[in-house]
TrEMBL record:
This is Protein fem-1 homolog B. It comes from Brenthis ino (lesser marbled fritillary). Belongs to the fem-1 family. Keywords: ANK repeat, Repeat, Ubl conjugation pathway. The lineage of its organism: Eukaryota, Metazoa, Ecdysozoa, Arthropoda, Hexapoda. Signal peptide: none annotated. Pathway: Protein modification; protein ubiquitination. It comes from the Eukaryota. ANK repeats lie at residues 117-149, 150-182, 183-215, 216-248. The keyword Repeat applies. It holds the Pfam family Ank_2. Coiled coil: none annotated.
Length: 725
């Protein structure tokens, strides 16, 4: 029979045609689709959101975002009202989410993303640089200060893109140049960060507050300095910008030096309000940054500025300023900083010495609490890894990990980086001490604990979706680390203390779950578990019997269910069936995982949300015989399954709370209570039901719901004491 479209289907189809006509600039088609429609229909077609590729917005917003001035003109001139100017939507930009932008290096992480939420048509036109559309919308009455979900205004969007023409037009029509986003980042700050000198100059001339601070304490001068925009720095100074410190105690001069922005350092170091000692430290920091910066690495510049700073210390015209080096740090080869010109000059032809000198100088000047301190440490460690000097790599990365943990900074990338290098070492046959893996496992467990707290009580400026993604990434990394540990624990040379520490760390991971409810054990037995492909996939492949065994030994629940009520045994068997092309390759791994699960008491009669038991999932697979061999009658399981099959409902207080999960595992909620998988019930009917009836000396048909409840109560109470389970 041919499917018929409903009125809703027709309306939805027409709505999409109108949307795409507006988005693609098909003005005549747009007009034809709306012509002769009544007001209510036009209101629905023009003010309803359409979803496409992550975008969710109205035709007017789509046309404004893509610069379709003809379509915007028709909508405003022919169909307003009912078209609404202040409707908000979610739109996609090619580079950044302008409304989500907030500074990264100074303590508020920048994000590269693609979607702006709560954007109006005017915001989209301003952010995309369509002056003609901006003018039409403003003339039509659009609110020039209507902000997005993160309080970004159309003016801010135009400042980000450096569109001076749009900036001037919006300001002339009432745009507030002082209105900041949720991070208190102003239009002047974003223009300074992006280096748009003409926009910065216009905003300053229009009265923008030059020393306004973002939530992190940074000013526009901080932003311009760390990005190396020397002309913008000069413009800000000409408008009496002060050299202030941000929340990390860093001045614009230090920010420029930390980012290896030599031209800005030269400008700011010469300012009369900057002391000689501050200038010397800035040049030291600049040289140290050149020695280990990923983007601006240059040993010649590193030596030049380190030598210059030391020469300034010994300039007798102004008095000696001797250096007070900090204590040596093991991760930096216990390097002692140079304290004389002669010692600096000995660094000239020694690259390694310059690298370690740079790291030591940075830590002394910036301090361990600075969030920017670990970046060059990680970079230098990566260089060591590329040279197969893994001991030096791990020492530096452990130091960076400790610094970030100390400062409550996310270590999601650090943890994955360790999993990658551990896998690389195992793959190429380099000895990997179990103690190294233990240290990272403990750090991973701590990070997951912190992640759980952040998700339970998110801060106002936290992105819950981003926090969840980060948490799940750490869960997967934890799985890789457990897989690596499982390999190493097969060796007989591990000392007992380290082995115990590894198991304790894994025990702390036992409750980690993805948003789908999957535990590490679910992931370990699932062929569909994603594996990072940078070295990690050379070692970590799932399903993995040794990983499953280690997780079970360390306390991960064998019958934990995910949101589909599938246990790890379900998942191991179902994932095998879902990937037919790899079945031969998976046969041994699946059977190994199933054996481990069954040996730990996994229930073969657990029922998922679809009413499927592991027995049904095993049919036709390599582990079917294994699952069938585990069909031994357990009185408590049979009682729960029988209750489920008969659909007997009960009040919560009729059954001990501890038994609720057990009952749920054996049946699925339905309108009449519980039901159990019929295929499984038939396979056991003669065996288990007869067994239960015989033990209770009652005919099977005489069971009532009340008797079952009483039976389960007594049986399960004893079972929990270990008498029947």
């Amino acid at each position: 029979m041919e499917d018929k479209l409903t009125l809703d289907d027709i309306s939805s189809t027409l709505r999409e045609r109108v949307f795409f006509a507006a988005r693609d600039g098909m003005s005549l088609t747009l007009y034809a689709l709306l012509y002769e429609k009544n007001t209510d229909d036009i209101d629905d077609l023009l003010n309803s959101d359409v979803c496409c590729d992550g975008v969710k917005c109205t035709p007017l917003i789509a046309a404004s975002r893509h610069g379709r001035e003809g379509a915007v003109r028709i909508l405003l001139e022919k169909f307003r009202p009912p078209v609404r100017l202040e409707t908000e939507g979610t739109v996609k930009f090619d580079e950044y989410v302008i409304e989500d932008y907030h500074h990264g290096a100074l303590g508020y992480a920048s994000r590269t993303a693609y979607y702006a939420r709560g954007a109006t048509a005017l915001w989209c036109a301003a952010g995309a640089g369509h002056l003609g559309i901006v003018k039409r919308l403003v003339r039509a009455g659009a609110n020039v200060n209507h902000a997005t979900k993160t309080l970004s205004t159309p003016l801010r969007a135009a400042c980000f893109d450096g569109r001076l023409d749009i900036v001037k037009y919006l300001v002339r029509h009432g745009a507030d140049i002082h209105k900041a986003n949720k991070y208190n980042n102003t239009c002047l700050m974003i223009a300074a960060y992006k280096g748009h000198l003409d926009v910065v100059q216009f905003l300053l001339d229009s009265g923008a507050r030059v020393d306004e601070r973002a939530l992190c304490g940074a000013t526009a001068l901080h932003f311009a300095s760390e990005c190396g925009h020397a002309a913008v720095v000069c413009a800000l100074i000409d408008h009496n910008a002060k050299i202030l410190t941000n929340e990390n105690g860093m001045t614009p001069l230090q920010c420029a030096a930390e980012r290896a922005r030599a031209s800005v350092v030269e400008i700011l170091a010469a300012r009369p309000e900057v002391s000689r000692a501050q200038s010397i430290e800035a040049y030291e920091l600049l040289g140290a940054s050149f020695a280990n910066d990923k983007e601006y690495y240059c040993l010649r510049m590193a030596y030049t500025y380190l030598h210059r700073a030391m020469a300034m210390r010994y300039d007798t015209r102004y008095g000696l300023l001797l250096k007070k080096p900090a204590d040596p740090i093991p991760a930096y080869d216990n390097w002692r900083e140079s304290t004389t010109l002669e010692e600096v000059e000995r660094l000239h032809s020694n690259a390694h010495a310059l690298h370690m000198e740079g790291l030591a100088v940075r830590e002394r000047i910036l301090g361990r609490a600075c969030p920017d301190l670990p970046h060059p440490v990680v970079f230098r460690g990566a260089v060591f890894a590329d040279e197969a000097r893994f001991d030096r790599c791990l020492a530096l990365w452990r130091h960076a990990l400790a610094l970030r943990h100390q400062n409550q900074v996310s270590v999601v990338k650090d943890l994955l980086r360790f999993a990658q290098v551990f896998s690389q070492m195992i793959h190429i046959g380099i000895e990997l001490p179990l103690s190294q893996v233990c240290y990272v496992l403990e750090a991973c467990a701590e990070e997951l604990r912190r992640g759980t707290k952040r998700l339970e009580k998110p801060q106002v400026n936290h992105d819950l979706d981003a926090l969840t993604e980060e948490y799940e990434s750490n869960v997967r990394t934890a799985l890789y680390l457990v897989a690596v540990a499982a390999r190493l624990l097969e060796n007989s040379g591990n000392d007992e203390e380290t082995t115990s520490a590894v198991r304790r760390a894994i025990f702390r991971l036992r409750n980690a779950r993805l948003r789908s409810g999957q535990t590490l054990l679910h992931l370990a037995v699932d062929r569909r578990t994603p594996v990072d492909d940078f070295h990690t996939s050379d070692v970590c492949q799932f399903p993995c019997m040794r990983t499953s065994r280690l997780l079970l030994e360390c306390g991960v629940e064998v019958d934990a269910s995910d949101d589909s009520r599938r246990t790890p045994l379900h998942v191991a068997l179902i994932s095998y069936q879902l990937i037919p092309d790899e079945r031969e390759l998976l046969r041994e791994a699946v059977c190994g995982c199933v054996c481990e699960l069954l040996s730990r008491g996994a229930h073969v009669d657990a029922v998922d949300a679809a009413g499927i038991t592991p027995l049904v999932a095993a049919i036709g697979g390599p582990a079917e015989a294994l699952v069938r061999s585990a069909l031994s009658p357990r009185l408590c399981c049979l009682a729960a399954a029988a209750l489920a099959r008969h659909g007997a409902a009960y009040a919560p207080d009729q059954v001990p709370r501890d038994l609720h999960a057990f009952l749920a595992m054996h049946g699925v909620h339905s309108e009449n209570g519980y039901r159990v998988d019929t295929h499984y019930e038939e396979s056991l009917k003669s065996q288990r039901c007869a067994s239960l009836a015989a033990q209770l000396k009652l005919p099977y048909t005489s069971f009532s719901a009340g008797l079952f409840l009483s039976t389960i109560h007594i049986i399960m109470r004893n079972a929990m004491l270990g008498q029947l389970m």
